[in-house]
Amino acid sequence: YVVRLHNFHQLADPLPCFIFSHPNRDAVIDNNRYKTLKYTVGLNTVLHGFAGYFETVLYKDITLSIRPETHSPGMFSWFPILFPLKQPITLREHDTVCVRFWRCNNGKKVWYEWAVTSPVCSAIHNPTGRSYTIGL
Questions:
Q1: Using an 8 Å Cβ cutoff, are 114 and 125 in contact?
Q2: Is the distance from CB of 71 to CB of 127 less than 8 angstroms?
Q3: Cβ atoms < 10 Å from Cβ of 105
Q4: Low-confidence ranges of the chain (pLDDT < 50)
Q5: CA angle at residue 63 from 59 to 67, to 5 degrees?
Q6: Under DSSP, is residue 125 helix (H, G, I), strand (E, B) or coil?
Q7: Structure confidence by residue, pLDDT tens digits, 48-75
Q8: How far apart are the first and last CA of the chain?
Q9: What is the pTM of this model?
Q10: Cβ neighbours of residue 68 under 8 Å, at least 6 residues apart?
């Protein structure tokens, strides 16, 4: 879900997830992606979801970003995406959170699927885009 985050506690610095290069000169262009991310927790807390940010290099040193550390001034039309967890997960200091993300498409729409696999396993969220998709 695209949201304006204003009342949240960031548990770790954002990590890069999916990278796209343009133009894509691959013989077969496949924009599906899969990535595993790991975060170490610094305090006892409850995890409700993950924030996703967008950052791009348009040309040389010309960039656009909604990542908090590199946010482009005046950028008010793009917002982070929230990857919520159906069941919040209790975390203890020094736990390692492992989350897996899939970017999927069927030629008409794009969607993301995600699941936590450590310290406990969650369900796979948004399978086949059943709750949220982005039209192409």
A1: yes
A2: no
A3: 16
A4: none
A5: 150
A6: strand
A7: 999 998 888 888 988 888 888 888 888 7
A8: 16
A9: 0.89
A10: 10, 14, 53
